[in-house]
Amino acid sequence: MTIYFGRLIKLAANQLTREFDDFAKQYGLTSTQMAMIDYLSRTQNVTQKDIEKEFNIQRSTATMILQRMEKLDLVKRESLKADARQKLVLLLPRAQELEAVIQAYMHDADEALLADYDAATVASLTALLEHITKGEQNNA
């Protein structure tokens, strides 16, 4: 029997996205918005370009997501003084109020996902996924 790892990874990603969306929905968010709030809360001086790289998305996709987040009063974008083409992305109070809840959920979801695996298995899975995602970023 042939195992298609790419297919399994895609199915796993879809399942995790559904679970994250279910959690995020109670706060009027999507899983992507939730992940961006988490990233912005843990990282200083984030530009839109940083978000594009972190989430491996195109500029147009990042712009669309950030515009929606601006409409929900979650973030604001400001032009950098040094380069007006670059936009600094800042969390607004509504998103800041959700930081702790989102971080706790992300932590608990990771703990539950990895609970049945030993450290060596987790390290191997992490290495595999990092290899895959680095390959994707190089092809983007």
UniProtKB/TrEMBL annotation:
GO molecular function, one term: DNA-binding transcription factor activity
Keywords tagged on the record: DNA-binding, Transcription, Transcription regulation
Residue ranges constituting the HTH marR-type domain according to the UniProt record: 2-134
Gene3D superfamilies (UniProt xref): Winged helix-like DNA-binding domain superfamily/Winged helix DNA-binding domain (1.10.10.10)
SMART domains: HTH_MARR
PANTHER family per record: TRANSCRIPTIONAL REGULATOR, MARR, TRANSCRIPTIONAL REPRESSOR OF EMRAB OPERON
Protein's name according to its UniProt entry: HTH marR-type domain-containing protein
Protein species of origin: Lacticaseibacillus saniviri JCM 17471 = DSM 24301
